[in-house]
Design brief:
Length: 94
């Protein structure tokens, strides 16, 4: 996305959550925020990255969301592997 005429400052943040065990929450979630407003969401249950605001849905096409979905699936696997390593290092079975 290209902003030709942008004024002021803005913030861009991503939050990632990975959990293990038997809980009723997705194993992995990713949330993107611009200026504290959510614009992006992915979780390991749905396995689809989605735009949460009208402006991103209108400005990004299917190829963008397919790419974001593949990136998120890859990142989920990295988080999953890192949790497994941490569990082994700290002698945790669950």
């Amino acid at each position: 996305m290209l902003c030709i005429l942008c004024t002021g400052t803005h913030s861009l943040k991503y939050f990632y959550t990975a959990v293990s065990g038997d809980i009723s929450f997705p194993e992995y979630t990713a949330v993107g925020l611009v200026d504290e407003g959510q614009f992006y969401y992915f979780d390991s249950d749905t396995k689809v990255a989605v735009g949460k605001t009208e402006w991103i849905r209108q400005n990004e096409g299917a190829d963008y969301w397919d790419s974001e979905t593949q990136i998120a699936i890859g990142t989920h696997q990295v988080f999953k592997n890192n949790i497994q390593v941490a569990k082994e290092r700290f002698n945790q079975s669950q």
